[in-house]
Task: inverse folding
């Protein structure tokens, strides 16, 4: 088997690149270990808690015991399916803040400032105006990725946004437009009632060109000859075979599997590779380092009125909603129910938000377990820019063995300061008049949990990953010893090999990572094809005019 380009991983960035490369006329082979994304558990937005808890769709990774979180091992879902994590995620669409990308450029990722990436966001989107406002001139009109909004017809959504305003915060009708900061509607990758994954948006159109083929198999290592990547060794069943690349190999296997595959191929920290008997091709100490994530807690309240989604938390209603969705693609099944959001600053002196909220009109966990108290609602809240850094390392040289994942969560004192502030600010928002008459009582943390020590105990016991791992193949200047790829995604020290997915993020972006991951695939495809980048944008993002002196 042979193609111009071989892409490892049919995930968010991989699908985007497959489409753009195939559309250019090049032949593309996409290696994917996972199976089909057909079926209601993936395609029905409201069923989002199922695929990320099913071994047929999820790699089932877990972190190592985290010493600052009572030695808990946290789930780290990654998509093992066509579409990758875009087929099992919560479908929340966030571009990230403009200053996130300006920071990338300052960290050595030249050409990745906000002015540089905004045109690619516009190219990839078809944004659907929904009568809830928005910045149409900042949004894409004819891209492959459909971005929409839920109906927000539950009164708790309006109450949440109003409470934020009453607490003194900004409102925004488009956090993906000029102004991220504030309370307002949340966006989702849902179109015509279906999950609009990278597979639906990009991979199927790529296949329709006749230039893109999906190859089923587990990537074992990159074949490197005379310093150049020439193909990928894969396992199909019990048979090992090679997929050859005439032009380039592109790794797009996730922030967990991309560094693993590099290390299995002899690219990584030399001493670590030697420990596992792997021949060192390129000593890159940054491979697997710089691991980042967002932690969050579910701030839950019992509701006074029976107006929450708990009404539908029975087998009868779930069956009815499922049937309605199956036949019409409408109703409660056609939304992920994350329909309101907020981005705020935790303190004065910050130029842009460092706290994110997802509001949900039911008290429920990601694994689908509802709060025992019945009717309730919750805000997922957590800091956006933790200073803690973890790492991905090999457990062995066996490609079938998962890597060791150590996030090193909450290892810096600033983490605790920021998280306590998250909890206190959240409690203040829900004490505003707009929400107060909906609140029966606080389920968790519990209104009696007020001291630093009590809040720290709650965080240690209840903080969960928001499932946004990134950073493990950092993009930066070629002379930075911790950089793994240069600003065009080329692996430093090996020709004909690139990495393009969330692993190349120098620093985690605000909010959910699916949007930025797809953008990386879009932009990197131009670098791969040797095209001139899209012209930079002159649009200036909104920054609070008194950010130096005011927190809100």
Result:
């Amino acid at each position: 088997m042979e193609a111009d380009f071989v892409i490892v991983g049919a995930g968010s960035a991989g699908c985007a690149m497959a489409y753009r490369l195939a559309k250019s006329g090049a032949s593309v082979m996409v290696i994917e270990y996972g199976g089909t994304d057909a079926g209601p558990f993936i395609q029905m937005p409201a069923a989002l808690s199922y695929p990320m808890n099913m071994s047929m769709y999820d790699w089932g990774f877990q972190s190592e015991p985290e010493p600052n979180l009572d030695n808990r091992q946290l789930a780290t879902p990654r998509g093992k399916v066509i579409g990758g994590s875009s087929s099992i995620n919560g479908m929340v669409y966030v571009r990230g803040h403009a200053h996130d990308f300006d920071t990338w450029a300052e960290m050595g990722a030249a050409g990745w400032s906000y002015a540089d990436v905004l045109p690619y966001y516009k190219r990839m989107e078809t944004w659907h105006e929904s009568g809830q406002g928005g910045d149409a001139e900042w949004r894409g009109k004819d891209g492959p990725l459909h971005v929409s909004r839920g109906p927000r017809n539950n009164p708790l959504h309006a109450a949440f946004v109003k409470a934020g305003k009453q607490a003194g915060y900004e409102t925004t009708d488009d956090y993906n437009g000029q102004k991220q900061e504030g309370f307002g509607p949340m966006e989702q990758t849902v179109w015509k009632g279906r999950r609009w994954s990278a597979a639906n948006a990009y991979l199927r159109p790529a296949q329709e060109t006749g230039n893109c083929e999906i190859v089923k198999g587990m990537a074992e290592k990159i074949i490197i000859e005379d310093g150049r990547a020439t193909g990928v060794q894969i396992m199909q069943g019990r048979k090992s075979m090679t997929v050859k690349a005439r032009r380039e190999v592109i790794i797009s296997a996730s922030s967990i599997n991309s560094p693993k595959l590099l290390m299995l191929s002899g690219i990584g920290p030399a001493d670590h590779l030697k420990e596992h008997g792997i021949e060192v091709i390129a000593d890159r100490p940054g491979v697997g380092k710089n691991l980042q994530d967002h932690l969050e807690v579910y701030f839950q309240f019992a509701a006074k009125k029976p107006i929450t989604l708990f009404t539908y938390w029975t087998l009868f209603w779930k069956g009815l909603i499922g049937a309605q969705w199956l036949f019409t693609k409408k109703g409660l099944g056609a939304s992920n129910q994350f329909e309101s959001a907020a981005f705020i600053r935790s303190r004065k002196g910050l130029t842009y938000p460092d706290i994110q909220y997802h509001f949900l009109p039911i008290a429920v966990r990601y694994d689908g377990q509802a709060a025992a108290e019945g009717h309730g609602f919750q805000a997922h809240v957590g800091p956006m820019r933790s200073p803690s850094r973890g790492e991905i390392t090999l457990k062995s040289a066996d490609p079938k063995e998962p890597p060791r994942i150590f996030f090193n969560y909450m290892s810096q004192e600033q983490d605790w300061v920021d998280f306590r502030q998250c909890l206190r600010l959240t409690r203040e928002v829900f004490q505003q008049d707009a929400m107060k008459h909906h609140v029966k009582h606080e389920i968790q943390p519990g209104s009696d949990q007020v001291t630093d020590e009590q809040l720290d105990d709650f965080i240690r016991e209840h903080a969960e990953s928001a499932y946004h791992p990134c950073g493990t193949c950092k993009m930066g200047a070629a002379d930075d010893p911790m950089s793994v790829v240069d600003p065009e995604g080329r692996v430093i020290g090996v020709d004909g090999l690139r990495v393009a997915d969330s692993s190349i993020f120098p620093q985690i972006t605000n909010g959910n990572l699916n949007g930025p991951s797809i953008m990386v695939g879009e932009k990197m495809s131009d670098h791969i094809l040797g095209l001139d980048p899209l012209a930079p944008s002159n649009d200036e993002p909104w920054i609070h005019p008194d950010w130096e002196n005011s927190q809100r």
